[in-house]
Structure formats: structure tokens, C-alpha cells
Amino acid sequence: MQNPVFDYDLILKYDKPGPRYTSYPTAPNFRKDFGGADFRKAILDSQRTAPLPPLSLYLHIPFCAAGCWFCGCNVCHTREREKGWPYLDAVRREVDALRGTIDAGRRVEQMHWGGGTPTFLTPEMIRQYFHALRDPFPFEPGAEISIEVDPRECSDEHLHCLRELGFNRISMGVQDLNPVVQKAIHRIQPQETTAHVADHARALGFESVNIDLVYGLPHQTVDDFRSTVDAVAGLDPDRVAVFNFAYLPERIRIQRAIKAETLPPPIEKLKILEMVIERLCAAGYVFIGMDHFAKPADELTQALRDRTLTRNFQGYTTRAGCDLIGVGASSISQLHRCYAQNEKDADRYQERTLGGGWATVVGMTLSDDDLLRRDLITRLMCHFVVYKGEIEAQYGLVWDERFKKEMEGLKPLEADGLVELHPDRLVVTPIGRLMVRNIAMVFDAWLEKGPQTFSRTV
Predict the structure, then answer these.
(1) What phi, psi does 145 have (nearest 5°)?
(2) Packed helices 84-99 and 123-134: angle between N→C axes, nearest 10 degrees
(3) What is the pLDDT of residue 455?
(4) What pLDDT is recorded for position 50?
(5) pLDDT (mean) for 208-215
(6) Burial class (CB in 10 A: 0-12, 13-18, 19+), 442
(7) Domain extents for the chain?
(8) What's the Cα-to-Cα distance from 217 to each of 108, 141, 245, 271, 414, rounded to whole Å?
(9) What confidence tier does 344 reach under pLDDT thresholds 50, 70, 90?
(10) CB of 4 within 8 A of CB of 277?
(11) pLDDT confidence of 451, banded at 50, 70, 90?
(12) How do residues 363-404 score in pLDDT, each as one tens digit?
């Protein structure tokens, strides 16, 4: 896997709004007439064939004690920790509905908690939430159990509690260690705080300690962010995610506190990304997908080599065969042929669960064409190559007949050096790797169905 080649003029030419393809079709296309009864039926329908896929559980904890101005997540800002108790009751009601629908023989291979800030909850609350999800479902021995933590709100007691319960992976948001940037995004987090959580987690036996960074934040420069990247590499995390700041103030109210003129200009932002890739790869990490870095022995790297790497609403993952079941406000579930998303507002989510546990408000059933295109886009986003013969054999089609229009659409990108069109395969070039979202958009049949708001592709 070659690292991307930076052609600044070409990158800026293709820098336009586009989906991140954590799903296909993307969330803006979910139907508002899809509810809890539809999701329940989709689960039952999916269990009529064998073998039944294992499960991946996701729990969304929406609470944050304070707002970070760059954040685009679904959050509820409050300092009232007691809000965690009625939310737990709602989670239990939703889990009861799911337990009554999901086949009892299906085992959980993966569970992840995100937010918001899961460590907003007290250790005792965490224990109660854990058992609310863990006890009703059979878990595989050695299941991956992970959680996002905020080092500013993750005490030693939190870490001991998490490890005792069986969490084996943690992911920490850092974003940037520069105090000027931290002030500009309303997130003051000293390096010592981050280092303490990382070191203590490792001492407690967590199998994987991961760190998240964000580039494109206000006042960031190449030189200053280099210091952050080097300091983070010095903490020796197992994985590093470096996300592109999606600045959407017209849609995300809290981002209006950030003024556009404080953001790095497009060329500077690209230079920051180029530096990040160079520094982390020089530190021994493998660049995976659009924004992840992992050590050579990591299972994420192995999945990249084996072409089993996939992508879902939590980002890149090795669990391609699982059905994803989301619990909590805004959570999205993904079955083979269905997406279902819960009510986003935490209070309304709790109210909805009073009517039988289901909180689904939007979703969709995928057509055969959707499944085909999702597979294609996933292969492009994860493996940067699609073999025509594999698609033809799996879906019973003739590539050059089915995708005649798309192949014509790829020719301008081929002329610009983004993709190679071989008789048997499509290959994303090192120059095109940063524009892989643009390449995937050629196969997106939903883009023609109406305007949607997306972050910029680079």
C-alpha cells in the first residue's frame, strides 16, 4: 500500500462537498416513514436465513459537561450527572425490545461506547450501563469491548472500573496539544493529562490505546501541529486517527463560535495533512484508509493486507460480518439490508422508548442495487482497488454492461491520474488516494436524487 502523493493543484480541483461513505446510501437519504415496527420486521426478516451473522453493539452516551466548538457529534451539554439515570432506564427499555426480537443464539463479537462523553457517567453508572447491555446478550470470549474517553473526565477510578468490567480498548480525543488551538476550540487539555490516562490504561492491561487528532482547526500551522504529532507518537498509541475538521456552521450551531478567517487556508491544511502522514509513517505506523494509522502488527493493518477491512458508522473496522445494532439517542443500526436510526434528542429518545422500547425515527430498506453499490464503494474506500471479476461472480452481472455510464464518468479522473482503469480492475493511484471520495461518488446513484449537505472531500 503506497502512501498518497500530494498534487496540490489537483487536490484543490477536486475539493468539493461529498459523502464520507460511512454508509451507502448515506444518512440524508434515510426515510422519515421508517419507524420501530419497520426496524423490528427488518431484524426478524434478516434472521430467516442461515448462518446468522454475529452482532456488534454500539451505545451512544450523548452527555458532555461542556461543548467543544469544533464538534459535530450528537451531544447534550449538561453538568447534571444525574441525567444519566433516566437515560439508563430508556436504554434498558430499548435493550428489552431488542432482546425480544434478536435470536437468542446470536453472539456479540464487538461492543463500542461513543458519545458525547461516555466518561461523563460516574463509575457506578458505567457498571449499570455495562450490565444493561452485557447481561442480555451472549458475548464471544475475547470480544472487542471499546470506549471513547475524554482524558479531562477520565479518572483513575474510571479506568479501573472499565478494565474490571472487561473493556479492552480505549480511544482518547486529543485534537491538538497547542494551547492556542485548544483555546480556540474551547477544549483545554494539557499534554500531561493525556499522557497520564494513556500510561495508566496501558499499565492496567488495556490491549489497545488509541488517540484521535483533528487537522484544519483554527490557528493550526504545519510547524505547530508537527509538535502535536511528534508528542502523540511519543505516547506510542496502537492507533492514531487524524480526522479532517468538517466546518459546517450553517448546520452545526456550536461551530458558529469558530470564525472562518481563523481556519488554515486550503494549501496550509493540505500541507498539515502531508506532514502528518510523513511523520506518523516515519514513526512506524501504516496509513490506512483516509484517516487512520495503525502499527504493522495491528489487526486493522492485517485486514488492510487481506482486503477484509470494512467501514461503518464508527469508521474503519475489521468486523465485516457483523450486524451493527445501535442503542441510545441518534444511534444507527446496520443490518445487511437495512439502516435504522434512533431519535437524536436525548429527552425525546427517552420518551419514545416508553412506547415499547423502540426509538427508531428514520431508516431505509436497501435495494439490490444499493447493496451492489455499497460493496463497490466500500472496496474503493478501504482497499483502493476493485476487481471486476469478483463483482461479476458475486452479483451475476457483466461489469462493462452494468457500469458503462460509470466507466465513462471515471475517464476524466483517469486522465488526471486519480485512477487506473485496467481490463480486470480499477485501481486508485497514490495521487488519487486523497480524492477517493470523489472516485466513489461516480458510483453513487443517490447523488442525483436531490441536494444534500456534506463536508468537503479533502
Answers:
(1) -125, 110
(2) 10
(3) 72
(4) 86
(5) 97
(6) buried
(7) 21-365, 368-449
(8) 37, 41, 6, 13, 32
(9) very high
(10) yes
(11) low
(12) 999 999 999 999 999 999 999 999 999 999 999 999 999 999
156 vs 316: CA distance, rounded Å: 29
* Average pLDDT of the chain to the nearest whole number: 95
Burial class (CB in 10 A: 0-12, 13-18, 19+), 221: middle
> What cell was used for 149?
474517553
Report DSSP letters for 254-273, one per residue: GGGGS-GGGSPPHHHHHHHH
Task: Report the greatest alpha carbon distance in the chain.
Answer: 61
In CATH, the architecture of 368-449 is Orthogonal Bundle (1.10)
Which residue from 434, 424, 329 is spatially nearest to 94, judged by alpha carbons? 329
* DSSP state at residue 397: -
The percent of residues in the chain predicted with pLDDT above 70, rounded, is 99
pLDDT for 450 equals 63
Q: Return d(Cα 436, Cα 432) in angstroms, integer.
A: 6
CATH superfamily of 21-365: tm_1862 like domain (3.80.30.20)
Q: Rounded distance, CA 434 to CA 9, Å? A: 13
* Residue 246: how many other CB atoms lie within 10 Å: 17
> What global pTM score does this model have?
0.94
Name 419's Cβ contacts closer than 8 Å, sequence gap at least 6: 410, 413, 426, 427, 428, 429, 432, 439
Q: What percent of the chain has pLDDT over 90?
A: 91
Evaluate whether 55 touches 106 at the Cβ level (below 8 Å).
yes
Half-sphere exposure of 392 (CA within 13 A, CB side): 11
Cβ–Cβ < 8 Å for 338, 35: no
Count helices and strands in the chain by DSSP H and E runs = 16, 19
Residues 327 and 174: their CA atoms lie apart, in Å, by 26
